[in-house]
């Protein structure tokens, strides 16, 4: 915990310094989200549009985890800070994963901007059948996204390939989250990493998901988190055996 607190403080300072940049990125994300939202509202009406809104919010969590956690390794590598972190006894993956709380800022801002656009279109995405269950599903997704970001960061250390070339979830999961799915198979879909909580969040908009799906996403979250911890430790041991970090930077 003594090592985590300075890292969180470091990331908090960085958020303050780069707030305008985060705001700019959030506006860009909200414009892309609005395109899908307008299409959903125009084609299938407000009920589906509300589901799409929260599916887009779920996608924003996943996408931000990819570049804010996985991409942080690229940043540390370009600055030459991987070795100093390692020498000080701080895992580079832990340093990246501690940025998890930062995900809430761009996700919240882009969702807020998109919410304002929704009001202009004439529907309210906050009209939800199960708001507390929706919040729980997004919290579970945030935990899974953090684990995914740590796995991505570890893979960058292992392969020396920039995270932008490794992160496939941001684009692939967007299409999968927006696609229609049989509600009767939600119990099965709930076991899918990252996708499961997103589907549950969509179900919370128009109905109340059975409690069994939350057991499924919880099990997946535990398995994914344990895998992320084990994988990152194995990668760091392997990196030390091969005598240091390697990197390929994109400019």
Overall average residue pLDDT: 84
Low-confidence stretches: none
Count of the domains: 1
- From the N-terminal CA to the C-terminal CA, the straight-line distance is 35 Å
Q: Please report the total strand number as a whole number.
A: 0
Would you list the SSEs in sequence order as H and E? Answer: HHHHHHHHHHHH
Residue fraction in strands? under 5%
Quick one: biggest sheet? none
What can you tell me about this protein's structure?
The protein is mostly helical. It has one domain (4-241). The chain is 77% helix and 0% strand. The longest helix is centred in the N-terminal third of the chain and has 34 residues, at 46-79. It is globular, with a radius of gyration of 19 Å. It starts with a helix and ends in a 10-residue tail after the last helix. The mean pLDDT is 84. It comes from Infirmifilum uzonense. The chain crosses the membrane at residues 20-41, 53-73, 101-121, 133-158, 170-192, 212-232. Keywords: Membrane, Transmembrane, Transmembrane helix.
């Amino acid at each position: 915990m003594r090592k985590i607190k300075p890292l969180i403080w470091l990331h908090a300072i960085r958020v303050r310094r780069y707030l305008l940049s985060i705001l700019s990125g959030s506006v860009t994300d909200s414009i892309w989200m609005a395109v899908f939202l307008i299409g959903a509202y125009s084609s299938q009406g407000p009920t589906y549009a509300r589901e799409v809104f929260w599916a887009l919010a779920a996608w924003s969590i996943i996408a931000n985890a990819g570049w804010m956690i996985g991409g942080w390794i690229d940043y540390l590598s370009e600055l030459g800070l991987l070795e100093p972190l390692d020498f000080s006894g701080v895992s580079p993956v832990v340093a990246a994963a501690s940025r998890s709380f930062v995900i809430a800022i761009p996700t919240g801002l882009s969702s807020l901007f998109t919410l304002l656009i929704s009001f202009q279109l004439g529907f309210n995405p906050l009209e939800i059948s199960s708001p507390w269950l929706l919040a729980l599903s997004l919290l579970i997704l945030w935990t899974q996204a953090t684990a995914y970001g740590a796995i991505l960061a570890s893979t960058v250390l292992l392969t020396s390939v920039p995270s932008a070339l490794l992160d496939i979830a941001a684009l692939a999961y967007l299409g999968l989250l927006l696609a229609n799915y049989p509600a009767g198979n939600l119990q099965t879909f709930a076991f899918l990493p990252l996708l499961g909580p997103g589907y549950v969040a969509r179900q919370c908009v128009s109905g109340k998901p059975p409690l069994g799906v939350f057991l499924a996403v919880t099990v997946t979250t535990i398995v994914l988190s344990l895998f992320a911890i084990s994988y990152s430790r194995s990668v760091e041991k392997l990196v030390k055996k091969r005598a240091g970090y390697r990197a390929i930077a994109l400019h």
